[in-house]
Amino acid sequence: MAVQIHEACWRCGACIWECPVEAISPGEERPVVDTQACTECYGFFGESQCLVVCPAPGAIRVTPESPDILEQRFAYLHPGRQLQDTWIWRRFEQ
After folding, report:
1. How many CB atoms neighbour CB 81 within 10 A?
2. What does the DSSP assignment read for 14-66?
3. pTM for this prediction
4. FRET pair for 22, CA 20 to 30 Å: which of 40, 45, 57, 74?
5. Among 53-57, 78-82, 89-93, which stretch is predicted with the lowest mean pLDDT?
6. C-alpha distances in Å from residue 29, one per residue of 7, 12, 17, 26, 64
7. Number of structural domains found in the chain
8. pLDDT at 93
9. Domain range for residue 7?
10. Closest by alpha carbon to 73, among 47, 40, 31, 45?
């Protein structure tokens, strides 16, 4: 699981509104991430938008998955859609 929402969450909903793939939904205690739908915003943005917009320190933690896995998930979930800003995700690969 790459994106996790922890108990520090204020339940403001910013991550839900910002997710381009609608992988985050309201949960009983805090928002829940659908790991099968989450691409960490790969293909849409250069970084995970939930993390960018979250006002609660430490509420969202991202353990990055490999760009190859994220690209496969993106292609499966969004066939025919053009990838954007992927160079940012690959800049540290060797």
Report:
1. 11
2. HHHHH-TT--EE--SSS-EE-TTT--TTTBT-SS-HHHHH--STTSEEE-PPP
3. 0.87
4. 57
5. 89-93
6. 8, 12, 17, 8, 24
7. 1
8. 67
9. 3-90
10. 40
